[in-house]
Design goal:
With 238 residues, this protein is mainly β. The chain contains three helices and 15 strands.
Amino acid sequence: MTFRTRYAAVLSAFTAVVLLAGCTAAPGAGTPTSSSTPGPENVDDMNDVEGVLLDSGRMFAVITTGSSTCVPQVEEVSADGQTVTVTLVDVPGDAACTKDLVPRASLGALPDGVDPKTDITLQVTYGDLTDDVDIDGDPPATGESGLETGMSTAGWFDDGGLVLLTWGSSSCVPVVESLEGSGNAGTATFVTDDDQICTMDMGPRGTILSFGEDTVDDDAPFTLTLVGDGLDGTIRIG
C-alpha cells in the first residue's frame, strides 16, 4: 500500500522552558504494551500503514492502527540510499491495552545520508505486517531540529488526518480537549493541568489530530492553531 504525504513548515511558540514549567523530577507512568484484539470488521484497518516526515526532515512518523494506549516503538532503522528500513515492536510491559482501534504515530529519526528533499520509501515491518510507504520529498526541509529550536511540526498522513510533533516530558504527553476545523484552518485545544507531575526528560511526542474526511482542505496551505498546555502557537502546513 502506497501513500503520498505533504509536509509542515513550522511557526510555533512552543519552547523547552514552557514545556518544563510545572514539571518536577518524578517517575513517569509506565507505557501499556500488550496487544488489543480487534473485531472482524476492523481487521483490514489493522493492515493500514502510512507515513510522514516531521521536524524539518530529521524525523519521520509511521502510522499504524490499534490500541491508543499501546503505541509501538521504532526498534531499528537503517537506510540504503533513499530506502529506509523500519522495524516496529510493542513496548515491553504487563499492562493491558484499551480495546479502541485508532491511528497511532511511532516516531523515528531519519538516518544520516537520507535526503529529505527527495522521495523516500519506508519499508516497515511490525510483527507479521510488512508494507512499503512512499513519501514525497520535501524541498524546503532545513534539517533544523525542533529539539534545538523548540518548534513543533505537523504533517498530513491521510485525508483530514495530521501527525503533530511536539517536544517535552515523555510522561506528560499532550491530551486533545477539542478539535475544530474547516477550509484551510483548524484549532487544536489541549488539556492544561498545572498540577500534573512530569519527568524532566525532553523528547518528541507524536499526537494524531483527525479532522475527518472532507472537513478541511488538506490540499492547500493550512494553518493549525495550538491552544493550551504550553503549546500555544501556529503551524503553517503546505
